[in-house]
Amino acid sequence: MSGAQLILLSLGLSVGLAAAGLALLGRWERRLGDPALRERLWGALLYVSVLPALLVPLSLLLPAPVVVVPGLAGGAALSVDAVPAAGAGPGLSPDTAVLGGLVLAAALSFLRATDLGRRAIALHRLATGARDAGPDVVRKISVAAGRLGARVPSVCCSDAIPTPLLTGFFRPLLLLPETVAGPAAEAICAHELAHLRRGDHRTVWIEEALLILCAANPLLPWIRARRAAAREEACDALALSGASDTARRLYARALVEAIRKTPSSPVPALTFTSAKRSFAMLRLKAILEPAPPAEPRLRRTALIAAGFATAAAASASIAVAAQREPVVTTAQEAAAAEADRTIRNPDWARHPMPAYPAAALDAGVNAGSGQVRCMAQPDGRLSSCSVLSETPGGLGFGAAAVQAAGNARLAAHQLAEVREPTPVVFTVRFRIAG
């Protein structure tokens, strides 16, 4: 298959993996209970679904396999006449269909990237237009962060947001509304700090990048939405750890109020209402009736299942990449290409220092030579050496030349030619001074 066909096939494999995972995990999700475990499983499905779209294009960066076929007698060229299939009429050729599919996939990726850029600009304007929070607010956030085991972020206030917002990949920033007070507000801030403890402020950007890369897969946004819903439930559980029923009801009421105020086009950041509204009822139920943590046995089983799914996706991706169309060449062309690459009479940073063969000394021969072929490595070392010829024969000059090559090194100026293992042919000469 051509590279374009392989990329299109990898996208189809991505869709197939996503569909299978949605059907399986969607059926068993609520039986798992623990939102932290469900979030990890949805995340694993997202990464597994994208794996073929990553591995197959990366495999195209490697050299294509080469198939050497025997040349025809007299050096005649091998040719095949294309005969149209019987009954084939004008229509859409396979190559045109593949090209159209790739153009559509690229267009979808461009549109998603453009949308992300627009939302990122809006987020940047929010962050730059905010003011530093007062010392009392920063102190409360620091206390809450210490209780949750999270780092203390930069804290700013803005009148342009209705609910706290966490952003920043390397330097987390917590944006708060101008008016934030009361137990419910403190619990909402704790929710954002729970995101920070889990590293979700980085995960959200990684997800955006994956959705741009694989925008042609229509199931990935749904998988991401399910993961976001489980993520919000997991952060609710952390923020409400040890809370009373009254505090949980206040928290649920604050969530309903925040959902009403959430803008229709959210910025790419973590807010109190990051999940889609369609999951709000399930989240409210989890707030008022929290699920117990998953048992260790269930966690191990889920981890093993995710490992098997990853291995299966990687194997399928490798199998697709193996369908790459090889480069066909004749034996004569292959030999000519290797001859063009071969370095002859190289310059040395460390010359071969051979030992005179004992058999030649015993025979009274005071001169000889051995021609050697080696593979030069990018660091100048020589490996896989073999004897091409020796003069006189049968006295060990070739073997001594091979042994001497083991300590030799190519000169630095020739290493620019050696970006991959390259054939080197040279002659080692022996002589006894006398």
Automatic annotation (TrEMBL):
Q: Which terms are listed as keywords in the entry?
A: Membrane, Transmembrane, Transmembrane helix
Entry's SUPFAM superfamilies?
TolA/TonB C-terminal domain
Q: Reply yes or no: does the keyword Oxidoreductase apply.
A: no
Parts of the chain that traverse the membrane:
6-25, 45-72
Pfam families referenced in this protein's UniProt entry, alphabetically: Peptidase_M56
Q: Which CDD domains does this one have?
A: M56_BlaR1_MecR1_like
Q: Does the keyword Zinc-finger apply?
A: no
Q: Which residues form the Peptidase M56 domain?
A: 143-264
Stated name of the protein: TonB family C-terminal domain-containing protein
